[in-house]
Structure formats: C-alpha cells, structure tokens
Design goal:
3-stranded antiparallel β-sheet; 8 helices; alpha+beta
Length: 253
C-alpha cells in the first residue's frame, strides 16, 4: 500500500492508527502553512462564510482543472488575517486549516488506485506527548468522533467542489484576470497578482437553458454569485495591508 501524495501544506502523512498519540491544534490555532500562506483551498459548503471575509478565486495549472481558494494576502507568503500568533478575531477559518493534522488520502495497492480513502495524519504530529484519541479498548473519544465527522464531511464537500469546477470548466465560463495595487506614499513598485481565474458574467449569459438549469439544480449558480460578490474583498485586503505597521492607504487597479 502506498499513499499517493501529501496534500498541500502537509510535509509527510502516515496512516492514522488507534494507538497513535497526536499533538492536536489548540482552539483557534492554525498550522504553519496557513499562518504564512496567501491562499487556502475551500470546499463546496464554505462559499457563504468564506465570501463574507475573503475574495474567492479559482486557480489552475493547466487551464483545464480548477480549484477554488480563499485569498489571504496580496503577495507570496503573506496572510493578512494572521498576526500576533492568532487569526483575526471574528473571521472564519477555512476547514482546510481546521482539519490539520489529519487528512484523507488516496492510496494505491499494486499501482492500482483504491476507491476508499484512508485517514492519515501529519507524521511530525504523532508524538508520545500528544493526545490519545482511543482508549485501551479501542473506543473513540468524543473529540475523535467530532474530528472524524469533520474529515468525512469535508472530503465529501471537496468532491462536490471538484464537480462544480469541472462543470464550469466544461461550460467554458472561466476567464483569467489580474489585480494590481499600490500602497500610497511608498516608492515600491505596485503589487501584482496573476494566475487567477473568475467566472465571466458574460459567459453565463450565453449558456443555454439546459446548462443554466443544471447549475441551479446542483446549487452551483448560487456559489458562482457568491464568488463574484466576494471579489470586492480585495479592497478589504488592501485596507488590512495598509493598516499593518509600515503600511499606508492603498489603491486598487
């Protein structure tokens, strides 16, 4: 048996065993990759809470497969929502960060991908000083029951998110866009964000009745409009950056 690969932000994952003791995140704590990352993946049911605080954009490495992410910062390795060892109070923390150090991984047996996914854990968090999630008789603790439910629901959510992106890509509604911004009274060149995709409203207007009905039936159209409405949050990111020490009012282009 072989785990295909560790998810983004994880270093090395191993199958989770009932005998493992695990160093869990404290309430409100987030993993290192989320503290300094400028974007984080989101799932299907998260669009509404995410759109309240962050811009939702889509990324792609081949212009065929797309992934929805929440934008956390305007430059690489910048999270404008994390400071002083804590996430900004009252701001939603995406589930991708909250599930850490656990994840669900695809495995291969004799080079054949298996349908069922395996619960894995970040290897560096398996520690004798950690917390036992099962008792000596193999009974799960309440904490593990809640974690397992989060993992299962989140994984199903990711599948629905992949289906959504696949349908939108098939309908040809994604378009690339860039954003340029500059902090006033600073001589540094403007910040430029590229490699982003959004849904083009004009392309939505050109869809036929069957395609629009499919988007509505699957709940995709509502999420598309949440994504489009969330883009105004780029302005709020600029405000956050300008409010940080050394920052100044910002201008968006």
């Amino acid at each position: 048996m072989q785990i295909t690969r560790a998810p983004f932000g994880y270093k090395q994952v191993v199958p989770f065993l009932k005998t493992h003791k695990v160093r869990l995140l404290a309430p409100g704590q987030v993993p290192e990759f989320a503290q300094r990352g400028h974007a984080i993946p989101i799932s299907y049911t998260e669009y509404q809470p995410v759109a309240h605080d962050y811009p939702i954009i889509f990324t792609s490495t081949d212009s065929k497969e797309f992934v929805a992410v929440a934008v956390l910062g305007l430059v690489a390795d910048e999270n404008l929502f994390f400071a002083g060892g804590a996430w900004a109070p009252g701001v939603y923390i995406p589930a991708y960060a909250r599930r850490f150090p656990f994840c669900m991984s695809t495995v291969t047996v004799n080079r054949a991908p298996q349908r069922d996914r395996l619960i894995c854990v970040e290897k560096s968090h398996v520690d004798e000083s950690g917390e036992a999630l099962f008792d000596a008789a193999g009974r799960a603790s309440e904490k593990w029951t809640a974690l397992e439910r989060l993992l299962a629901e989140y994984e199903a959510d990711l599948d629905r998110g992949r289906e959504m992106c696949s349908i939108l890509a098939d309908y040809g509604v994604f378009e690339p866009f860039t954003m340029q911004a500059k902090l006033d009274n600073q001589s540094a060149p403007p910040m430029q964000m590229s490699g982003m995709y959004r849904v083009a409203e004009k392309s939505l207007e050109n869809l036929n009745a069957a395609q629009l009905k499919n988007l509505m039936r699957k709940g995709i159209l509502a999420r598309v409009y949440l994504h489009l409405a969330s883009l105004v949050n780029f302005g709020r990111l600029l405000e956050r950056k300008g409010a940080r020490p050394g920052g100044s009012p910002a201008t968006e282009r």
